[in-house]
Design goal:
The structure is a homodimer. Chain A is an alpha+beta fold. Chain A folds into three domains: about 260 residues, Bira Bifunctional Protein, Domain 2 (BirA Bifunctional Protein, domain 2, 2-Layer Sandwich), CATH 3.30.930; about 90 residues, Anticodon-binding domain (Rossmann fold); about 70 residues, Translation Initiation Factor IF3 (2-Layer Sandwich). In chain A, about 35% of the residues lie in helices and about 25% in strands. Chain A has 14 helices and 23 strands. In chain A, the strands form five sheets. Chain A has an eleven-stranded mixed sheet, sandwiched between helices. A five-stranded mixed sheet of chain A has the order 16-15-17-18-19, with helices on both faces. In chain A, strands 4-6-5 form a three-stranded antiparallel sheet. In chain A, helix 2 crosses helix 6. The first copy, chain A, is globular and about 80 Å long. In chain A, about 50% of the residues are buried. Chains A and B meet through strand 2, helix 2, strand 3, strand 4 and strand 5 of A and strand 2, helix 2, strand 3, strand 4 and strand 5 of B. Chains A, B: Catalyzes the attachment of proline to tRNA(Pro) in a two-step reaction: proline is first activated by ATP to form Pro-AMP and then transferred to the acceptor end of tRNA(Pro). Chains A, B: Homodimer. Chains A, B: One of its GO terms (cellular component) is cytoplasm.
């Protein structure tokens, strides 16, 4: 190998320093690049292609449920942001303000949207007249800005990409139904596409969205035992409708307020994929979200016929899988390491001897298993293997999550788990915000959610001993 | 019909007041809604679905040529914007400035991207090392902001959606080739998908992009005879590379500057579709860009079996066309008018007598032609008709463009055309910016482009009489 070729350098081990491992992976697998814009990242082709697959698959699921896409302005006039009291209190401290347009100062400053409830409400107030205009089930794919002090690629950045659904309904029941429906869409997507099991539940009063009546969440467990809030769905009741005057005339010609919801997932999901599936060799992508599912690595590619065969295989495989050939002038060993770093689910090796024998070698990224497959069987075997990998990755993630989910029946047990183990802690809670805050202050663990699947293993709160109201998942979180 | 049902109101005739006709169409066909954010529009589902089809089809074409999608930050630090002199002069007067983040004033103010050359250059300066890293052929789909004083939906708004491609190449030849290649992608897309013929050519020095060596454009003619710049592709040479230090080591290990391009189209294309194809009944969408290609209108839908048949047809047609049923409780006549306003290419009427006869009526939006088609022939006839409509719309637009393209051999002729006729004026030009400015000051007509297909019908400039250098398309423009 020539000297100027880049080497695949080893990354920090995840056991040694998980945070550094994460940073190494996002950079070395070329998902992002740093920019001169503080707190903002450049999403490179390998990273953006994952987001495109998330968009494509999730958008199709949305549309099956009647969602229509729209686009609202990226700016919110200050007076609009201030219309809903809880909402402005929640967001005003972390927005970016545009004060000048062109060469003049603006009469009213505009914030760059941190989320668009206020814009959708303003729009719905003008657009909705009668019950015939309902429901409105709109969504937009866009970027939003929150002026975070500490940032990490995908997990917390000043600008991030997301989708935000905003709906308006005639009745409270319909709004609640939509809120839960979208949470289920997210949960199914995480499990079936990202191979990431999630806990579905409701946020506590303290943790709910600014302005919501109820916030539902899906919570996933990362490899280091920390939780990641992976998607949320909010029921606003008629609070925003009253603040913005979003009304409709019902069938009896009476004016009524609409009931609203909003729901979103972000590029954070890419951080989740990294932290749930990655290993010390880099990224490991579930097949359904892998921009390249099969990478063909020709062996002794200068020998006559090898590159031709690789290209012939690529062309055939492209009918049923996303496939590329790495025909660069790097050594096979280097290519193996590079494709492992990039998390490509299957590697196909083919060299002169394989060609003679009419076969190729398939290597799984997730567990390293190799097998020799006749060219004529690839069409059957590759899709099978991709399905198996997808399934195995979900099972592995679920096993890790289950092995790291603990039940704390006493405060001593709770503290012992937090200090000596890792993961989710299931515990009974009194429902009191002060108690919740005390738990967080003492242990760093916040309430992740009150799961839909409740258990009852004690009558009293794990912390204060008062009567228990809910079983809660606690955890340290991103 | 109940009183509270909305009526389809007549729109202003395009001959009477084209500007008002345009506004009526964008509102009544529900493409956009106004917002409380001055100069910004809300793109409603009917409008955004057109943009999604533009994105999908154009993005596929981009990727065929090797384009990869990425995402860069939406903010540009002032110091970055200022690095290329012509560029900052061109854009600084029309950008929005973020001066505060959260509760504090920023140390350096950030503009909201009006275009992202500076961000891509900054990124490439870090990301490109050797000739092996070239070419970079990146694109992003995003929104940009330009603080326009006068705004019109789709045509000129403070925020708009677009794609911006930014490429870096080893040689000047390769950069020029890519610049032209993308212009051709745009031109083919406009003709084949939007049914809109365009003139391809180069912008004059005065009209070129701030910081470019050469700007190429596609220019279309609207129904009112005004021109619309519909897409541009810029060759930057190594100007930006020198300003930002974007260098690579070549095969001889010598440092070289890259050569760059950028190219973009915007939601303006939706304005073009409206103004090229629309009529006094509203929008007319070319089938390839119509979110709904066939609208089924049941006649006497309360009669048994009608809605069932409509749904059965919808299900069958959905295999080969984008189809919906309008099963609302409005009258058929009202539905006809509404679907015409929305520009849906084909209407399918089906009522009890049709069902008995085993047939439906198909009505073309573009020319009103009706035909009766047996249910069993729909599968053949609908795709045929959609193709025919697509083709006829392109021919009609081309005929209108050609009938409104004039040749001016003298200044009197030029003025006569501008005053008494409409459309493109082909004329010989000396190449002098002062002369170009004088023509614009006297007539309101600007140079649209120096077309690739040059003609020579005079040796002297139409305005000043000096030796002619180029044949130019002039026109009043949006």
């Amino acid at each position: 190998m020539a000297d100027d070729k880049k080497k695949v350098e080893a990354i920090t081990s995840m056991e040694k320093d998980f945070a550094q491992w994460y940073t190494d992976v996002v950079i070395k697998s070329e998902l992002i690049g740093y920019t001169s814009v503080k707190g903002c990242m450049a999403i490179k082709p390998a990273g953006y292609a994952i987001w495109e697959l998330i968009q494509k698959q999730l958008d199709a699921k949305f549309k099956e449920t009647g969602v229509e896409n729209v686009y609202m302005p990226m700016f919110i006039p200050e007076s609009l942001l201030e219309k809903e009291k809880d909402h402005v209190e929640g967001f005003a401290p972390e927005v970016a303000w545009v004060t000048h347009g062109g060469l003049s100062e603006l009469q009213e400053k505009l914030c760059v949207r941190p989320t668009s409830e206020t814009l959708f409400c303003d729009f719905y107030a003008k657009d909705i007249e009668s019950y015939r205009d309902l429901p409105k089930v709109y969504n937009q794919w866009c970027s939003v800005v929150r002026w975070e002090k500490e940032t990490r690629p995908f997990l917390r950045s000043r600008e991030f990409l997301w989708q935000e659904g905003h709906t308006a309904h005639a009745t409270a029941e319909e709004a609640e139904e939509r809120t839960i429906q979208m949470l289920n869409v997210y949960a199914d997507f995480c499990e079936n596409v990202l191979a990431m099991p999630v806990i579905k539940g409701q946020k506590t009063e303290k943790e709910k969205f600014a302005g919501a009546v109820a916030t539902y969440t899906i919570e996933a467990l990362m490899h280091d035992g920390k939780a990641l809030q992976s998607g949320t769905s909010h029921n606003f009741g008629d609070g925003f409708a009253k603040a913005f005057g979003v009304q409709y005339t019902d069938k009896e010609n009476k004016l009524q307020y609409v009931h609203q919801t909003s729901w979103g997932v972000t590029t954070r999901l890419i951080g989740a994929i990294i932290m749930v599936h990655g290993d010390d060799n880099g990224l490991v992508l579930p097949p359904r979200i892998a921009p390249t599912q099969v990478m063909i690595v020709p062996i002794m590619q200068k020998k006559e016929g090898v590159l031709e065969k690789a290209e012939e295989l690529r062309s055939a495989i492209s009918a049923y899988a996303r496939v590329k050939v790495d025909a660069s002038d790097k050594s096979p060993g280097f290519k193996f390491a590079e494709q492992e770093m990039r998390g490509i689910p299957l590697r196909l090796e083919v060299g002169p001897r394989d060609i003679e024998a009419g076969q190729a070698i398939l290597v799984r990224r997730d567990n390293g298993e190799k097998e020799t497959v006749a060219f004529t069987d690839l069409e059957k075997r590759i899709p099978e293997l991709l399905d198996t990998i997808q399934k195995d990755m979900l099972e592995k993630a679920r096993a890790h999550r289950d092995a790291n989910t603990h039940t704390a029946k006493s405060w001593d047990e709770f503290k012992d788990i937090i200090e000596n183990r890792q993961g989710f802690i299931k515990a009974m809670w009194c429902g009191d915000t002060e108690c919740e805050e005390a738990i967080k202050a003492e242990t760093g663990a916040s309430t992740r959610c009150m799961p839909f699947e409740q258990e009852c293993f004690s009558d009293v709160c794990v912390h204060c001993g008062k009567p228990a109201k809910k079983m809660v998942y606690f955890g340290r979180a991103y």
